[in-house]
Amino acid sequence: MSRIGMVLAASVCLAPLQALAANPGAAQAQRVTITRDTWGIAHIRGKTDADAVFGMIYAQAEDDFNRVETNYLTALGRTAQAEGEAAIWGDLRQRLFINDADLKAQYAKSPGWLKTLMTAWADGLNYYLATHPQVKPKVLTHFEPWMALSFTEGSIGGDIEKVSLTGLESFYGKRQVAMTEDELGLKPWEPSGSNGIAIAPSNTKDGHALLLINPHTSFYFRSEAQVTSDQGLNVYGASTWGQFFVYQGFNEKAGWMHTTSTLDSVDEFAETIVDQGGKLFYRYGKELRPVTVGKITVPYKAADGSMKSRDFTVYLTHHGPIVREADGKWVAFSLMNTPIAALQQSFLRTKATDLKAFQKVAEFRANSSNNTLFADSTGQVALLMPQFVPKRDNRFDYTKPVDGSDPATDWQGLHALSEAPSVIAPANGWVANSNNWPYSAAAQFSPKIQDYPKYMDSVGENPRGLHYISLLKDRKDFTVDSLVTTAYDPYQPAFARLVPTLVTAWDKLAWDDPRKVALADQVAVLRGWDNRWSTDSVAQTLAVYWGEAMWNMGAAEAKADEVTIYDWMDGRSSADQKLKALADASAKLTADFGTWKTAWGQVNRFQRLTDDIVHPFDDAKPSIPVGFASAQWGSLASYGIRSDEGTKKRYGTYGNSFVAVVEFGPRLKARAITAGGESGDPASPHFNDQAERYSKGDLREVWFYPDQVKAHTERVYKPGE
To answer: What is the structure's pLDDT at 5?
Structure first.
């Protein structure tokens, strides 16, 4: 090469490096170190909390930028720009409650330390994109600090998802759209939420508090990492993709586990609308108040790839935006919308090292949807209810739309934290929650239902709640290992209740009834079953298919009668219905697998082929048998499945995701597992390296301390290298 050619080539190479050096994140990147352990999990260290946030979000983007961007498209109401017109209604729902101008204003009035973290978050994502030009975002090519305020709570589904999209489309699309079976609750569904157990030192073998962290989410919903700084941050756990705080996790002295609460913290108000000369008003007491009218423009990607938009005239009352119409009334939706407080609470609790400090952070009262199981190294254990709890008139049923014209139905401020049915240091030595009511959280030492307004719980008990009570009571020798065993206990109390009613129905058949012979073998298998799942159990398979057939048969009637599906199956369904469901289940299994005598592990599988948000499955490709089962039958280890057209096997998509057990001794000990693996890249060795262990509930050791990480290091680098 000529001298001139060499100079030109050098200038071409140096140009992007010079541009990179000028990037606002370049200097901060030098203050961050990322250590990947041999599971690919990132251990991030920064000089300041902001440096740590920069490195944390950079590492998340390395592992799965697609999921980071997808979450912010949802949060900002911009999904239709990537996915097309069908996503308009989800975007409209989001924009009814947030908009860019308001988020920018919220950012401007945020405390300085929080602005610094949000800036570091945006810089970390932008630095990732600058150093990875091969990554092509669908929409978000540049992140702004204020965007972090759009997504401040790490649950699988925020309060806003309680707004029906079909109701929204019917109202603002000006055409009737039928509610889906999922919205109506007519299909078997995997209970959303989680399990959490905190055990006091009095009930453990070594005298140290223990915590089970067992969120039930969509698979691959969160990133596992450790984040530390010289400003006292040292937290390990699971963060929802795109967020800069650990949502479920622990520091050296304390840990927390969130479960979706059954407390009612969102409400619908039925508004009486009056049209006076083309101007809209709504009744409130003896007055007419003007309806606030606004405009929302939702851009979307058209079928030809061009960008188009739809304009919507939207309506609000003081109760909130109008989201649907019912029985001639417009329905307004009220929820918590305090992003600054929520983001502060989400981050600051990760630095709380005991219950007193954790409760002080909770005074932000910006958690509306989560119960929290807590344990610390002093031996404190607690169940804390959501802190955003509106005061209401207990005469009204807030599980349904209340009369918005009656001022008595309005929210009357927030409850103090002490007014919620929380549990702290109960005498039995444990607390637990599985998205059931708080009134069994500590056995006989639980809060009493009569002492609280009915809106403090809107669901009641569930099969998992009954299950954990039976496992925790009267036991004083828990260890990390035995708590893991408890978390995967295979007993299913719903089947223990329901299967005997099927057996009785068969027993009462006349001997000349053809069903007596046709179903004899199936009933014999179920009669001798111990109601425990395992990969080799034929009874488990048969019970699941029977239970789902019963659910499909009775869900509408149970809903109409306002009883649980379990009560309908048990006491309201007929013997003929029970036996028909068994015949249908047997026929389906025979059609799909050649015989109804099919082991659970042949049906119930784990498979990870791609990083698609809606994962594809293929019976012809490798998969792994899984023993644990759906939480709807009381399995503590939750495994929600999906069977697609073209597949006969059933593949997990929801349930146990990140699972951890932590012991708060003089030196913290923890074990954990993540569904599949840490990376979203199918070419990465960490895309599916935890799958086999995940399928067996075989939790790996967590490397928390520097000496542990050093002994299991795969790579050490700075962002951009």
So the answer is: 45
Q: In which element (H, E) is residue 29 found?
A: helix 25-29
Say which residues have a Cβ less than 8 Å from residue 687's Cβ, sequence separation at least 6. Answer: 608, 611, 676, 677, 679, 680, 681
* pTM score, whole prediction: 0.94
Beta strands in 246-369 (DSSP E): 248-251, 254-260, 267-271, 273-276, 279-284, 287-290, 292-301, 307-317, 320-326, 329-334
- List the structure tokens of 274: 């009056």
Both tokens of residue 147? 């965007």
Instruction: State how far the Cα of 701 lies from the Cα of 480, in Å rounded to an integer.
Output: 11
pLDDT digits (tens, 9 = 90+) for 177-189: 776 666 666 566 6
First to last CA, the chain: 29
The helix/strand/coil state of 630 is coil
3-class DSSP assignment, residue 282: strand
Question: For a pLDDT cut of 90, what percent of the chain falls above it?
Answer: 90
Q: Within its chain, how far is the Cα of 126 from the centroid?
A: 27
Six-digit token string for 271: 């508004």
Angle (deg, nearest 10), helices 463-472 and 480-487 = 150
Percent of the chain with pLDDT over 70: 95
Q: What are the tens digits of pLDDT across the range 76-121?
A: 999 999 999 999 999 999 999 999 999 999 999 999 999 999 999 9
Q: Please name the residues in contact with 612: beta carbons below 8 A apart, sequence gap of 6 or more.
A: none
Calculate the alpha carbon distances from 185 to 92, 215, 528, 560, 671 in Å. 23, 22, 32, 11, 36
User: At residue 631, what is the residue type?
Assistant: A
Q: Which residues pair with 248 in a beta bridge?
A: 238
E strand segments, 529-620? 604-606
For residue 1, the Cα-to-chain-centroid distance in whole angstroms is 58
For 574, residues 6+ apart whose C-beta sits below 8 A from its C-beta are none
Burial of residue 707 (number of CB atoms within 10 Å: 0-12, 13-18, 19+): exposed
Two tokens, residue 599? 């082991």
| DSSP, res 434 | S
Please report the pLDDT score of residue 224 as a whole number.
Answer: 98
Neighbours of 471 (CB within 10 A): 17
pLDDT digits (tens, 9 = 90+) for 118-145: 999 999 999 999 999 999 999 999 999 9
Predicted local confidence at residue 158, as pLDDT: 76
Q: With CA atoms as reference, report the closest residue to 386 among 266, 469, 215.
A: 266
User: How deeply is 13 buried, as exposed, middle or buried, from its count of CB atoms within 10 A (0-12, 13-18, 19+)?
Assistant: exposed
Residues in the chain, total:
721
171-199 burial, b at 16+ Cβ within 10 Å, e below that, comes to bbeeeeeeeeeeeeebebbbbbbbbbbbb
Tokens 């950079």 -> residue:
58
- Mean pLDDT over each residue of the chain, to the nearest integer: 94
The answer to whether 241 touches 68, Cβ cutoff 8 Å, is: yes
How far are the Cα atoms of 139, 176, 271, 312, 327 from residue 323, in angstroms, in the given order? Answer: 27, 14, 11, 12, 14
Residues 6+ apart with CB under 8 A from 292: 315, 316, 317
Residue 8 confidence (pLDDT): 39
**Please, which residues bridge with residue 640 across strands?**
654
Show the tokens assigned to 629: 């089962």
User: What's the pLDDT score for residue 225?
Assistant: 98
Task: Name the pLDDT band for 645 (thresholds 50, 70, 90).
Answer: confident
- CA nearest to 375, candidates 358, 387, 360: 358
Encode pLDDT of 406-421 as tens digits. 999 999 999 999 999 9
